[in-house]
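Issue: copy button drops trailing tokens. Both records pasted manually instead:
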Amino acid sequence: MRIGGIIDISTKDIPNRSTMVIFTVGCNLSCGFCHNKYLLHEGVGRDIDVPELMEQIKSNMLVSGVSISGGEPTIQKDLLKLCKEIKNVGKYISIDTNGTNPKSITELLPFINRIALDLKGPLNNKRLAKITGNQVNFNLIIETFKIVNSRDDIDFEIRTTYVENLMRPNDIDKIILFLRKNQFRGSFVLQQYQYSEGVGEELKQKFQKPEHITLLNILKPYRNMELQFQIYLRDDIIGYSMIDKLYEYLND
């Protein structure tokens, strides 16, 4: 596998778990705001075979889980083999994905515990092309969603990063409407875009961090709505919080 970096211990990647995070190199999308953009360059990282990765995982006694992120992990040919080996040593396994490879996800599901689907925008070609910089077959993402959502044994998180100047509040409304119509059973997380050096200095002004109040106003219509799934906000003001707790200090 082509690996761009490893974090030995993280408490932020899987809720309520200490986690080892493995970053794979390469992605089939070209999102300009990607904070891990360095992972898209051919010369980044190094090839590490599964036995060597497993030695690192087994020797890390301080974590109960392994999160495989990227980049896009499902384009790695050894991903299935790695997940099988991790399962054999009893670690909780989470895969971050953009959802464009449902075949790979189907193969992985018997061996993993969690999917974090990074839903870039509403599921239509025009908006996804604008947000990701690619022509995306949104039907593949829908297929991935339905496959994972049908599995009660898989923890399922969908998250969308809100980028000022690129996204619109209506984009989030359309995503939540899709989740409602399709009986989503997991957690939806609205994430605040924050600039990182990986984005590149030339794009620093193009993509803006939304204000806390902007994100609150986007989610406000859903705070008292009966939904089959939970909605969370993740930003630099409150960290990570369910929306029920976000509006206690605001005047209606």
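Record 2 (pasted manually too):
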Amino acid sequence: MKGRVLVVEHEPDAGLSMMGDHLDTHVQVVRPYLGESLPESVGEPADYVGLIVLGGSMGAWDDEVAPWLPTTRRLLADAVHRQVPTLGICLGAQLLAAACGGVVERGAAGLEVGLAPVTALPVAAGDPFFGPVASAVGLQWQASQYHNDAVTELPVDAELMVSGDRYRQQGFRVGSAAWGVQYHPEVSIELFAGWVANGQRSGELSADAAHLLEEARAGSAALSRLAAAHSQAFLAVIQSAARPEAEASA
């Protein structure tokens, strides 16, 4: 694959994790929390072939906590406008929705954490991203969750593709080439264990949260397949988007 995928990482313990095993040779990770600068556009001069915005503990509008968020939202809107393949994960999905006119709020059902089933809706079968994911792992899959906020209203040009019981907006497409997932297809057991430990120390999780790790370890093989399916589907979207450009320049 020619070109680079820009990855926006918001925190040191919220990286590409298992998806990095499939994407790391194609990505440029920018860490604004370390002072690294985000570009204003996915277009010239870098001309990124894709954009991934990862999760984080801050909210989609916590600009005073993470002052790079306004630039991230503009970057997402720019990618949607340019039809550059884009994937937002958890906070990244919320930022994608917010950047395109959707609504993100504190989740009325409270913290969603641990493994939870999500279901691909019939419309996902024809989607270039969620269709291959569902073909690889089935119409319903267990996904890692850890979020307080939620997308409560999708942008007007968005379509819901994957739903959940506690929070309905689990997977959606904005425009023709941008997708958001509320769940975490990327997170490894080791990384999730760190999140649980942090949650216990802060009091967000109870002291007996060990069952969350037990469930994740029991489903580790399926979670690895889920990470691979999302990575491969995203790479396929990028390759498909590049094909017409190559044909036009031939």
